[in-house]
Automatic annotation (TrEMBL):
Keywords: Cell membrane, Membrane, Transmembrane, Transmembrane helix, Transport. It comes from Streptomyces phaeoluteigriseus. Pfam families: TauE. It is found in: Cell membrane. Its main location: membrane. The chain crosses the membrane at residues 49-70, 82-99, 105-122, 148-172, 178-198, 210-231, 237-256. It comes from the Bacteria. This is Probable membrane transporter protein. Belongs to the 4-toluene sulfonate uptake permease (TSUP) (TC 2.A.102) family.
């Protein structure tokens, strides 16, 4: 029995999943948050809960490529501030998945994404972003890091949708393009790898999901190469607008699907 028969998917559906995997690679090296479109595609083709388990290893493959590309641009003080809150969010997300159905998951994540986008746009219109990420090491900055961290951990656990939340945090903290990509690359590699035991325990990752991953992961590489080529041709303002737009699209898709 081949992988497509095992998952009861057609050739066209596999092609759509392959395109979504390519988009994961592109989002990891160019426009973070764009992989919410991939999330929607996987959930449309596969059962919604099962799709999160299939998508996670593909995201990890994209994270590895992003780290190899932008490892010199990561801002570790920001990462260390975020990790404890993210860990708490992952635990809350795991508990949530134990009882929530697909509709509750989609609605919760969609509302969070749109709310965070609105907050970020409002903040950027009323105050200039910090030139140096270290400038956010204040009481308000720590509170913001914890709030975004918990929400990021929660959303990434329940729907692999933490990218837009963290994108909004990094933009609001004043990160420039390469620092944004380098910091988010390490962040999501560490967080996504840490989610694997939870996903296995919930039955979201198993032998059949890994077989489908093996067939799809090769499509992440050309997407990452395309993103690496494109990112140097996108100016900072356009980059920020694309990240915000991708977040809005992802949030709306989750609410209306």
């Amino acid at each position: 029995m081949n992988t497509m028969t095992l998952w009861h998917i057609t050739g066209w559906e596999f092609a759509v999943l392959a395109l979504a995997a390519l988009l994961v690679g592109f989002s990891k090296t160019a426009v973070s948050g764009a992989n919410t479109v991939s999330l929607a595609i996987f959930a449309a083709v596969l059962p919604a809960r099962a799709s999160t388990g299939v998508l996670l290893p593909i995201l990890i493959a994209g994270d590895v490529l992003a780290v190899l590309t932008y490892r010199r641009h990561a801002h570790w003080p920001t990462l260390w501030r975020l990790f404890p809150a993210v860990a708490a969010g992952v635990v809350v997300g795991t508990l949530f998945l134990m009882w929530a159905d697909d509709a509750a998951v989609r609605t919760s994540i969609g509302v969070i994404l749109l709310f965070m986008t609105g907050v970020t746009v409002w903040r950027r219109r009323t105050a200039e972003a910090a030139d140096d990420p270290d400038a956010v090491v204040t009481r308000a900055g720590r509170l913001k890091a914890r709030s975004y961290g918990v929400l990021g951990g929660f959303t990434t656990m329940v729907a692999n949708a933490g990218g837009p939340v963290m994108s909004m945090y990094l933009l609001s903290a004043g990160f420039r393009k390469l620092g944004f990509l380098g910091t988010s690359a390490f962040f999501f590699l560490i967080v996504n790898v840490s989610k694997v035991p939870f996903s296995v325990g919930l039955g979201l990752i198993d032998g059949s999901s890994l077989l489908l991953d093996a067939a799809l992961v090769a499509f992440v590489v050309p997407g990452a190469l395309l993103g690496r080529w494109a990112v140097h041709r996108i100016n900072q303002l356009l980059f920020e607008r694309l990240v915000i737009a991708a977040t809005v699209v992802g949030g709306v898709q989750l609410l209306v699907r």
